[in-house]
Specification:
Layout lengths: L1 H7 L10 H11 L3 H22 L2 H11 L1 H9 L17
């Protein structure tokens, strides 16, 4: 923890008015953004595959993008959509 605090406070004057912004930017620089992006792409790809398997591709993509792997569970647990309703037959001509 001490190491992270030292990295967050590197080059920051605690008495300056914009110290919070500098600390925040230092913390954001430590986040592995590229890895997070690729994990999110993988989650969405699996969600699209599960959604396609369940008949709801777009819903699978949205749930996976919002909830990650938990979205996969949502897509798999929900029941499959029923087929298009068939309209009643037309009356026969006389």
């Amino acid at each position: 923890m001490e190491h992270w605090l030292n990295k967050a406070m590197q080059g920051v004057d605690p008495d300056s008015p914009d110290a919070f912004l500098h600390i925040f930017m230092n913390l954001m620089a430590m986040v592995p953004w590229v890895a997070l992006l690729w994990w999110n792409v993988a989650f969405v790809a699996v969600g699209a595959l599960l959604g396609w398997w369940r008949g709801r591709t777009v819903e699978g993509i949205v749930w996976a993008a919002v909830l990650g792997p938990i979205g996969w569970v949502v897509v798999v647990v929900r029941p499959r959509p029923r087929g298009r309703p068939v309209p009643p037959p037309l009356p026969r001509g006389r």
